[in-house]
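for the writeup, i need someone to sanity check this before i put it in the appendix. the sequnce is what the collaborator sent (i think, or maybe the updated version? ugh). structure was predicted straight from it, no edits. if anything looks off just tell me and ill rerun, i have time this weekend
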Amino acid sequence: PIVNKNDLFKMVNKFFFNNWINGDLLTFKPEVKPTVFTSLMQSIFLQSKYALYDFFAKGTSKTLKPNIDQITIRLIVEQISKNVASFKSIKEAYNLRIALLKYFHIEGGEKMADQLATLASNLKEKLGANGLVTCQSENEFYYLSGQLAFYLLYQSESSNRNMGMFETILRVKYASQLKKRLDELLLSYGHAINMDAKKFRNAFSSIMGFETSSKVEGINRELLLAGLLSDNVFLQKKTEEM
């Protein structure tokens, strides 16, 4: 639980800026350190520091509220792409993002947590069923694609499994490209998946059979990211930190 703005700032600093903000928001000039704090993270901080100051020091959300959606999603994707945070930290950052969207009453933010919980619950039941399993909506398509992508990458035997492995998924622009990336991942890592893995087979066939020409942007990209970061439906045990 976050009970005051001082605690909230500590969370924002930890999960979005990798604990790199040390000092007064208006005067602090963070240096770039590629393995911890990238140039884009520096740029986002400098662009948003007045809005952050207005909220945390002055108590007004007028300047931060219109930008909190883009600030948080850009920082999460950057930390994933540049591998500057652990999987556990990125998951916490995404949870904090959803909490902030709800707090500021951002359109769609209040519904996202319930929507994700519903998607996860429905998929667990659906994927274990016998017979033909189909994807029912674009929301389900993108969330399940994220789940599949994580599970396939999780099979990697590389000694350097890290968040940067997700970049190939996050860079796709269209649903057709997303399907192609998943197909490529299956070719690379499918040898590690048991042929009797019914949930996986049901999920993969339903994704490949779903017809859509949509772009991976807005809510679609959000759900893809959520699928990557949520507890994975194909793993029996708790996901290990990558």
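Residues 238-242 have pLDDT under 50 and may be disordered. The first helix runs from residue 5 to 16.
thx in advance!!
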